[in-house]
């Protein structure tokens, strides 16, 4: 009878073999209702000696409350607060799944009772679609607002529109009838700062004044951004993707997805992009979208009271974030699946797709760039690619992999140095220094002075008859015998060679500054700087191949497909492939990245070059280290994240990793019916462990269950307030039947309702390879180790991470949450 009750409560566990043979993560979570407790603290310290701030509880005797409520009447009532989580803890995935199934059964059983209950049932069924719709609407609207504001503030560094201050440079000159084709960006309505301050449009004085104003605005924007982050929302800095990956794996960081973080991140993202720092807004847009998803989930009880369900909304929100960042709804869904999500059931895939669709639709309606596209650098190519070109495409992939490996090592080394030196104590000064160096070096070079998105657009764009860029300054060959295409391959002019030198300097500048910029205390994405570096390298390679084909069209590699007068090579395509390769080298994304870039260009024809370059960059990068930049930052910050990409190949056993070790103090345990309230309170106050195994007796060591520190604390405090006769000497009973007590003894406190009666256990001879796989698949927080049913020790998530660090010859102390 008891086992049947436990099964209905979700506490029944099938055999170990049935769990490990399940075919998917969802089956592993759903199948057989496996229950184990894996609520992780910030340092996973079930057995760590480190005290977590905010988790050291002091017990106080409750006042004598007159109550005639009998103890047994309270057993079926849920104790308020039990089953919730503290900051920097990991959620219990299976308990949350069981809660959701129980809620669903309760709603279904009542829906035929009345029209109101049927309405509540329909509302509950549709709440998932409503919350992702609201998330998509908010993400699209905020992305449009950020795009428009960032464009306007970027142009503010160079001048203002005298007639309408809210217009950026391009909008200011749209209605002007006094612009020329060659100087289409110059019009009387647009005034540079030199014209306004000293009344000169040309000359050395004008250049110096514009230079000074450019630096002034860049420093002002950067200072304002870092000040707002430091004062109002420290969590608004950085990309946000490493933390979102950790949160989606079940970790709780209170306030990271809150309304203050959303508001400050939106404002400071505009300021950081406008300051000209070597960063992008695409990564932070994922954080912004996840903030929207988290805030809207509190409007629906289905999600506000269940942390596992809330993470399904966050997965959909991250898809919406990438959708508006790149105008790539399908790429956004694949990004969420491949890169950030830990648990991704099929219904989350549909809702992610819908959220990405809604967000892209809203952004398209806003039309922030005035080109009817979702991104500034949308391009279309019409020239086919040829088999020989795979060789330079693969070379760009090699460059992307080398750049990714270099960037990850250099950036992590700099961030580690920032943490370990006094320099990290002055984040405002660091941002000001980086912004000043960036502005001083960027202004003289037209390609670094440009907004990074505009630079990528210029590098992606193919040279047509309407292009006036110096990258398109080709000499027209009047002696060509026949013209096959409208714009055939032509010899490069002075402007092209000048542009190549400037691009080489821009490449070096971007590589160095991006290393020092990513990780400073302002919102900073990595997608756009990486794409810019790849696009610069790709454009240079593209021009080189184009000139090689023009001057040596009789070589056997060109003879078959590139005749004189034909448009054989598209340098812009090389820029696009280089951008994808460099982004792949840094993030180690593959499928989602190819789809994102394919959606950017709108051409299926170039999928093979993109796939070749991205896979090459991943292989080359993996040769130097398998983790991408986000995994590297997760490890740097010590977040409790078990990466599924890492392989565990060592032959250790559970007994080698479990604690207590040989010289450690014995395991802190509770007995099922011979400890008092004072005994448990003393154990809670004297230790910093976040859970205690419950055994039958000290002599037998037979395992009964597992009780969480937080649940014990809340249950005892609640009993003192609500139950008459509970004192320090009251016997605490975890067994089903209260043992017989002397007549004069105080009323016992029965806490069986908070006990996890089927904690996940392994034997001491279980290979660690299997234990690590179980922790990954089920998202465990801890696992008890037994021998013939007797409790031997415990393995926590932190122990797993420490052991993996030791086997990789790394410092185990680096695993601590920072």
UniProtKB/TrEMBL annotation:
Keywords: Antiport, ATP-binding, CBS domain, Cell membrane, Chloride, Endosome, Glycoprotein, Ion transport, Lysosome, Membrane, Nucleotide-binding, Repeat, Transmembrane, Transmembrane helix, Transport. Strongly outwardly rectifying, electrogenic H(+)/Cl(-)exchanger which mediates the exchange of chloride ions against protons. The CLC channel family contains both chloride channels and proton-coupled anion transporters that exchange chloride or another anion for protons. The presence of conserved gating glutamate residues is typical for family members that function as antiporters. The lineage of its organism: Eukaryota, Metazoa, Chordata, Craniata, Vertebrata. This is Chloride channel protein. It is a multi-pass membrane protein. GO terms for molecular function: ATP binding; chloride:proton antiporter activity; voltage-gated chloride channel activity. GO terms for cellular component: early endosome membrane; Golgi apparatus; late endosome membrane; lysosomal membrane; plasma membrane; synaptic vesicle. The chain crosses the membrane at residues 126-150, 214-236, 256-277, 284-301, 313-337, 386-408, 428-447, 499-520, 532-553, 573-598.
């Amino acid at each position: 009878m008891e086992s049947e009750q436990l099964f209905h409560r979700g506490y029944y566990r099938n055999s170990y073999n049935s769990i490990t043979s399940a075919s998917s993560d969802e089956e592993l979570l759903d199948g057989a209702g496996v229950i184990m407790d894996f609520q992780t603290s910030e340092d996973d310290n079930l057995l760590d000696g480190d005290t977590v701030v905010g988790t050291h509880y002091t017990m106080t005797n409750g006042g004598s409350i007159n109550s005639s409520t009998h103890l047994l009447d309270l057993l079926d009532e849920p104790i308020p607060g039990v089953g919730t989580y503290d900051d920097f803890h990991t959620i219990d995935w299976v308990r949350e799944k069981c809660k959701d199934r129980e809620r669903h059964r309760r709603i279904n059983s009542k829906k035929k009772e009345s029209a109101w209950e049927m309405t509540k049932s329909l509302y509950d069924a549709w709440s998932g679609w409503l919350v992702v719709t609201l998330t998509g609407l908010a993400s699209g609207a905020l992305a449009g607002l950020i795009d428009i504001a960032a464009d306007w503030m970027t142009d503010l560094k160079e001048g203002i529109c005298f007639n309408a201050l809210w217009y950026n440079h391009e909008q200011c000159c749209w209605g002007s009838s006094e612009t020329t084709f060659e100087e289409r960006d110059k019009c009387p309505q647009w005034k540079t700062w030199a014209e306004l301050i000293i009344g000169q449009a040309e000359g050395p004085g004008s250049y110096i004044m514009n230079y000074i104003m450019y630096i002034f605005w860049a420093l002002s924007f950067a200072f304002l951004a870092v000040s707002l982050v430091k004062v109002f929302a420290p969590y608004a800095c950085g990309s946000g993707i490493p933390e979102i990956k950790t949160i989606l794996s079940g970790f709780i960081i209170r306030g990271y997805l809150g309304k203050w973080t959303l508001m400050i991140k939106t404002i400071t993202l505009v300021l950081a992009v406008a300051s000209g720092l070597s960063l992008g807004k695409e990564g932070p847009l994922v954080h912004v979208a996840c903030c929207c998803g988290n805030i809207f989930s509190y409007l629906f009880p289905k999600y506000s009271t269940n942390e596992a369900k809330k993470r399904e909304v966050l997965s959909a929100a991250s898809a919406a974030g990438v959708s508006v960042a790149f105008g790539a709804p399908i790429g956004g869904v694949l990004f969420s699946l491949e890169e950030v999500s830990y648990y991704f059931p099929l219904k989350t895939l549909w809702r992610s797709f819908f959220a990405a669709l809604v967000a892209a639709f809203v952004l398209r309606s806003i039309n922030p760039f005035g080109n009817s596209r979702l991104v500034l650098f949308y391009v279309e190519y019409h020239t086919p690619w040829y088999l020989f070109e795979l060789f330079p495409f693969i070379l760009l992939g090699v460059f992307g992999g080398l750049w990714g490996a270099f960037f990850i090592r250099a950036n992590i080394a700099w961030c580690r140095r920032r943490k370990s030196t006094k320099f990290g104590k002055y984040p405002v000064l660091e941002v000001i220094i980086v912004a000043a160096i960036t502005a001083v070096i960027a202004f003289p070079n037209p390609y670094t002075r440009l907004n990074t998105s505009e630079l990528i657009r210029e590098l992606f764009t193919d040279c047509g008859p309407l292009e006036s860029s110096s990258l398109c300054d080709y000499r027209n060959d009047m002696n060509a015998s026949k013209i096959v295409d409208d714009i055939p391959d032509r010899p490069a002019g002075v402007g092209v060679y000048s542009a190549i030198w400037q691009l080489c300097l821009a490449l070096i500048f971007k590589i160095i500054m991006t290393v020092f910029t990513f990780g400073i205390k302002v919102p900073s994405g990595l997608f756009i700087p990486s794409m810019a570096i790849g696009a610069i390298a790709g454009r240079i390679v593209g021009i080189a191949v184009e000139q090689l084909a023009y001057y040596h069209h009789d070589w056997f590699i060109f003879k078959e497909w590139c005749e004189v007068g034909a448009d054989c090579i598209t340098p812009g395509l090389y820029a696009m492939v280089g951008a994808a390769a460099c982004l792949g080298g840094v993030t180690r994304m593959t499928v989602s990245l190819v789809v994102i870039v394919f959606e950017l260009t709108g051409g299926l024809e170039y999928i093979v070059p993109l796939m070749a370059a991205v896979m090459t960059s991943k292989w080359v990068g993996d040769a130097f280290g398998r983790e991408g930049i986000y995994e590297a930052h997760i490890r740097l910050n010590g977040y409790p994240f078990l990466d599924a990409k890492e392989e565990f190949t060592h032959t250790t056993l559970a007994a080698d990793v479990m604690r207590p070790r040989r010289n450690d103090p014995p395991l802190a345990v509770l007995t099922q019916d011979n400890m008092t309230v004072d005994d448990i309170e003393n154990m809670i106050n004297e230790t910093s462990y976040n859970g205690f195994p419950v055994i039958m007796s000290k002599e037998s060591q037979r395992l009964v269950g597992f009780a969480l520190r937080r649940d014990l604390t809340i249950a005892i405090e609640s009993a003192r307030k609500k139950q008459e006769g509970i004192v320090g000497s009251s016997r605490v009973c975890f067994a089903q039947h209260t043992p017989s007590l002397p007549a004069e003894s105080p009323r016992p406190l029965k806490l069986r309702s908070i006990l996890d009666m089927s904690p996940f256990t392994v034997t001491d001879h279980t290979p660690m390879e299997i234990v690590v796989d179980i922790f990954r698949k089920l998202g465990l927080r801890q696992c008890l180790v037994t021998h013939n049913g007797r409790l031997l020790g415990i393995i926590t998530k932190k122990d797993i991470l420490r052991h993996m660090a030791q086997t990789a010859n790394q410092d185990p102390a680096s695993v601590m949450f920072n």
